[in-house]
Amino acid sequence: MNLTPLEPWISDKIDHADLEEYQLQKLRDTLQLAREKSRFYRHRLADVPIDLAGLDDLTRLPFTTADDLRADPLSFVCVSQDDIQRVVTLDDADFPLATLSTSGTTGQPKRLYFTREDQELTIDFFHSGMSTFTAPGDRVLILLLGETPGSVGDLLAIALTRLGAIPIKHGPVRDPAVTLDVMRREKITVLVGVPTHVLSLARYPNAPPLSLKSILLTTDHVSQAIKHVVEKRFACRVYNHYGMTEMGLGGGVECEAQQGYHLREADLLFEIIDPNTGAVQPDGEYGEVVFTTLTRRGMPLIRYRTGDMSRFISEPCPCGTHLKMLERITHRWSGRIPVGAGYLTIADLDEALFAVDGVLNFTAALTRENSHDCLQLDVKIADGGKLLPVVQALSKAVPQSRYFDVRVSSVTDIPASLAKRTIIDRRNRA
Ligand SMILES: [Zn+2]
After folding, report:
1. Strands, DSSP E only, in 135-220?
2. CA of 337 to the centre of ligand 1 (A)
3. Does residue 346 sit in the same domain as residue 318?
4. What pLDDT shows up at residue 99?
5. Could you tell me the sign of the dihedral formed by the alpha carbons of 103, 245, 276, 399, in that order?
6. From ligand 1's centre to the CA of 260, what distance in Å?
7. Of 272, 302, 333, which residue is a domain's last?
8. Ligand 1: distance of its center to the CA of 213 in Å?
């Protein structure tokens, strides 16, 4: 079992200093920069003492939310317009990890501004993270948007070139047959893509024999069902990356042990909080993932609430690292739908449905009819696949399903989305 490459990478970056001391210093610098240069934080931090004695004092600072970002993104910027190299408007679905707000209450898109140096830090993280399962000479097919300079696929390609690998920008999978043919022709050894896109390759009938070494699935939530199908079909290891545009695209990546994400701790400070009270959770307890940027110049974010639910794993990682380990993200706090006495999440449906033979993708909406909840599933299924097993899988694997009727329709297409998938709750609009 190899040590995560993030450990020596971070150790180098912080010049072998104590990580917490390094984080505290960077945190102080960030707070000072933000209060001096950003209109938003000048107000938000006006009455807050920012001279922190230790990392624990971070809890005295207020949170930053997605709504803050939406309200006035430019008010966060700390540099002159000339120094901004890249602007990401999240409605563009530039990155599969962070796109439209699930609430959909405001029409305002989130906008993120990055300097050249900010982007360089991301490339450096991708370089280190990808080396977990990519070697010099590997031919890597990138199934993410990469045409625009500074887009996720573009930064990843730069990182892979530095690593000595050969990146091939392909973009999202539109037609699995075409992508599989490219994989065969280009002798691809590593794939990077969105889970449902890679699943469409794995479930494509009569695909040519391929010899992949590893696959990286990158989204906030990778269902274990998809991971298993893909692993079995391509007979290789499937890794998971966690990030969002607000984090500077990259946040953390699994090591060979695949027990959770190791994090970009020299650039980002992570906390887990109780989403109701805002109190910091003890290690091991579940809560909302919150992060603070430590090295971002263009647009620092302080205690940014991601909406993602996870926990720090207290047990040491088998790879032997001293770095923290964040459990695989399963769902978003805001994406939970109250049903019966509990909640339903897209992750519940993913695990049940993607495990069914032939299921390629689906959309889910909860409606209310005759004072009874009804789950409408539009399922894209491979030729020859059947719908009945979908209903059976649901009633077996999702206990909440006894609280609603299920209606399943077969659809020929679901637009290949790069956005976060969610259950649409239409019950209050009837
Ligand atoms: Zn590890």
Report:
1. 139-142, 166-169, 190-193, 214-218
2. 33
3. no
4. 35
5. positive
6. 7
7. 333
8. 19
Residue 325 alpha carbon to ligand 1 centre in Å: 7
Tell me: do 322 and 379 sit in the same domain.
Answer: no
Residue where one domain finishes, among candidates 333, 363, 379: 333
User: CA angle 380-398-309, nearest 5°?
Assistant: 90
Phi and psi of 358, rounded to 5°?
90, -15
Classified as helix, coil or strand, 418 is coil
Q: Residue 362: which CATH number?
A: 3.30.300.30
Instruction: List, in sequence order, every residue forming a beta bridge with 379; answer none if it has no partner.
Output: 362, 410
Answer whether residue 430 is part of any domain. no
Domain range for 362 = 336-425
One domain, residues 405 and 298: no
Instruction: Note the pTM of the prediction, 2 decimals.
Output: 0.92
If asked whether residues 323 and 340 sit together in one domain, one would say: no
Contact residues for 291 (Cβ-Cβ < 8 A; gap 6+):
247, 251, 268, 269, 270, 271, 301, 303, 304, 306
Q: Has residue 102 been placed in a domain?
A: yes
Cβ neighbors of 63 (< 8 A, separation 6 or more) are 278, 290, 303, 304, 305
**Average pLDDT of the chain, as a whole number:** 91
**pLDDT single digits (tens) 118-164:** 999 999 999 999 999 999 999 999 999 998 999 999 999 999 999 99
295 CA → ligand 1 middle, Å = 24
CA of 297 to the centre of ligand 1 (A): 29
Q: What is the pLDDT of residues 334-357, one digit of tens each?
A: 778 889 888 999 999 999 999 999
Q: Is residue 407 part of a domain?
A: yes
Distance CA 260, CA 319 (A): 11
In the reported structure, the alpha carbon of residue 4 is separated from the centroid of ligand 1 by a whole-number distance in angstroms of 5
291 and 346 share one domain: no
Do 126 and 169 lie in one domain? The reply is yes
Specify the CATH number for the domain of residue 10.
Answer: 3.40.50.12780
Give the position of tokens 């990158």. 218
Instruction: Tell me the CA–centroid distance for residue 320 and ligand 1, in Å.
Output: 6
Whole-number Å distance, alpha carbon 230 to ligand 1 midpoint, is 22
Same-domain status, 283 and 371: no
**Total domains present in the chain:** 2
Q: Ligand 1 center to residue 37 CA distance, Å?
A: 38
CA of 6 to the centre of ligand 1 (A): 9
In the reported structure, the alpha carbon of residue 131 is separated from the centroid of ligand 1 by a whole-number distance in angstroms of: 13
Asked if residue 37 and residue 48 are part of one domain, the reply reads yes
- 69 assigned to some structural domain: yes
